[in-house]
Amino acid sequence: MLPSAEQFAAYMNRLGINSDDRVVVYDSHGLFSAARVWWMLGLFGSQQVGILNGGLKAWQAAGYPLLSGAEHVPLGDYQAQPDTCRIASPEYVLECLLQSDIAILDARPPARFSGAEAEVRPGLRSGHMPGSYNMPFTRLQGDGALLPVTELKAELADYLHKREII
Fold first, then answer.
1. What DSSP element (H or E) covers 14?
2. Tens digit of each residue's pLDDT (9 = 90 or more) over 70-103
3. Could you give the 3-state DSSP secondary structure of residue 165?
4. What is the helix (H) or strand (E) element at residue 110, kind and residue range?
5. 3-class DSSP state for residue 103?
6. CB 54 within 8 Å of CB 30
7. How confident is the model over 126-136, as a mean pLDDT?
8. To pair with 155 at 20 to 30 A between CA atoms, which of 9, 16, 55, 80?
9. Which of 26, 30, 70, 31 lies closest to 49, judged by CA?
């Protein structure tokens, strides 16, 4: 699921990123892999991380420039300090599934959640944990941009009602 702290730090250093840098991540879909990178940076101790809302598509739509080719950057000095409190163990999730006031959300598409469609990653079975809820990540965005807060609250209302989301 995650690289080791050493692997992550080495990768960030090759990108020229330092521990105290402000980092903005983006992808070509808006909120797809950028959200994963944002989460991993926070998990490994970065304090100033954001996501470009709308991603590369929004950047281009605003008329901002693009470059092609690789850029040479000096090595960074990233020190990964993982916050393991952000990761739930299988045993903890099982305990949570037995409680009515905690909701476990699965962000995959409905067909993969229901088991009607095969997993795209080799070795993983389709279907979901008993008692979990399907909240596809695509419901929280529109055209690659995160929905406004009022719309996010409306989307999450069924899950937030009397539940703590983990």
1. helix 5-14
2. 889 999 999 999 998 889 999 999 999 888 788 8
3. strand
4. helix 110-114
5. strand
6. yes
7. 90
8. 55
9. 26
